[in-house]
Amino acid sequence: MTSNTSRRIRRRTVLSAAGTGALGALAGCTGLLSSDDGGDEDDSDGDDGPLTDYEYTEPPQVVDFAEQGNEATLRTVPARHQLVTEAASGGPIELPEVWAWQADDLAPSVPGPIFRMDEGETVELTYDNSDHDRHHTVHVHAVGKVWDDDGAPITNRTYVRAGESHTYTLEGTVPGTHVYHCHYQTHNHLDMGMYGIFRVDPADYEPPDREYFFTLRDWDSRIHEREAGGDVDYSPVDRSPDTYTINGRSAPTTFHPELGTPLIVSEGDTVHLNIANNGYEAHPFHTHGHRFTVIEKDGSPIPESAQYEEDVINIAPAERYTLEFEATADPGIYPAHCHKVHHVTNQGSYPGGMATAIVYEEAMETDEFAEIMDDAGFEG
Q1: Are strands 62-64 and 263-265 parallel, antiparallel or unpaired?
Q2: Beta bridge partners of 64
Q3: Residues 163-193 pLDDT 10s
Q4: Residue 324 and residue 295 in contact, taking contact as beta carbons nearer than 8 Å
Q5: How far apart are CA 195 and CA 369, in angstroms?
Q6: Burial code of 289-314, b = ≥16 C-beta within 10 A, e = fewer?
Q7: What's the pLDDT score for residue 275?
């Protein structure tokens, strides 16, 4: 059996309760970290430095096919990935090796770039596998393509070998929010970070006042230790998540306006949240102070007659929803988080994990916001 020390994500500092009061009130509504949650234990035994010296990932960017002639290039590169940054409370917490998607001249990211195309258009996505030593594919849910471009070698026997490339021709036949991922040795490659969101805008799409993209993910850090050369046992049959992220970050970094995922709104805004689950576990996502309607499910629009207000929605693996809400609450800062409470932890240390907030611009001058930004490591 793997020891508790080897099961923990590598971190160069010890988690502490300092500065977590504001975040604790947001993330789970119960206050400071407790002393018996494993967060005060020194994890440095045998840690003689980082396992890799790869460059760090950066937050995912939007790649709009229409702005670049309906063409894009995608690569896979090894990288390090910070779930909680060094400047944030309790950080750094990092994965020593991920396999990050890199689009065109953008920085590598986990999740990968948010691809965006228009309904009815045809795009060419070239996967260039010259920067990695593993075979890979690109599988995009829902969009139109020929069998050879499905990216599923278990049936079409086609994959992109290391050092080779392949151009996938994709048609915007199903508008809505979809996911993409590597489908070669999926049980490992998806876990190593090869996933993202693929958006097809409907022909009559009218953007709301604010629009955001969230990808939920549960992680077992042992596979990242193993791939980085660490002495750790891992098998997908006993996969056991020990950390949870929104767009690849855990709280308090999720509250960081540049690195994280706060839903920044102004009073009266109409907000769309495109949310997908690229993990293994289901996540009941809950918004405080705001009730939303589901206007799309897996790309299909929901008729108005079937829409109703709710404030929690269970999102199964590979599912994606578009939520719409109005920013009509008392202007403030409201949590948005997974309601499986252990998913709002960083290896048992609470709060952490899948927690962020709906932040009114009108509340960004408050002392509470300043404290939350201190926790997140943001110096605005």
Answers
A1: unpaired
A2: 116
A3: 999 999 999 999 999 999 999 999 999 999 9
A4: yes
A5: 32
A6: bbebbbbbbbbeebeeeeeeeeeebe
A7: 98
**Of 289, 288, 277, 296, the residue nearest 343 (C-alpha):** 277
- List, in order, residues 6 or more apart from 64 with CB less than 8 Å away: 116, 117
Using CA atoms, how far apart are residues 254 and 23, in angstroms rounded to an integer?
Answer: 11
HEC string of the chain? Answer: CCCHHHHCCCECCCCCCCCCHHHHHHHCCCCCCCCCCCCCCCCCCCCCCCCCCCCECCCCCEEEHHHHCCEEEEEEEEEEEEEECCCCCCCCEEEEEEEEEEECCCCCECCCCEEEEECCCEEEEEEECCCCCCCECCEECCCECCHHHCCCHHHHCCCECCCCEEEEEEECCCCEEEEEECCCCHHHHCCCCCEEEEEEECCCCCCCCEEEEEEEEEECCHHHHHHCCCCCCCCHHHCCCCEEEECCECECHHHCCCCCCCEEECCCCEEEEEEEECCCCCEEEEECCCCEEEEEECCEECCHHHCCCECEEEECCCCEEEEEEECCCCCCEEEEEECCHHHHCECCECCCECEEEEEEHHHCCCHHHHHHHHHHCCCC
Q: pTM of the full predicted structure?
A: 0.88
The partner residues of 237 in beta bridges, in order of sequence, read none
Q: Which two tokens stand for residue 313?
A: 């929605």
Contact present, 221 and 326 (Cβ < 8 Å): no
Question: What does the pLDDT look like over 136-153, one tens digit per residue?
Answer: 999 999 999 999 999 999
Could you tell me the two tokens for 361?
Answer: 């611009």
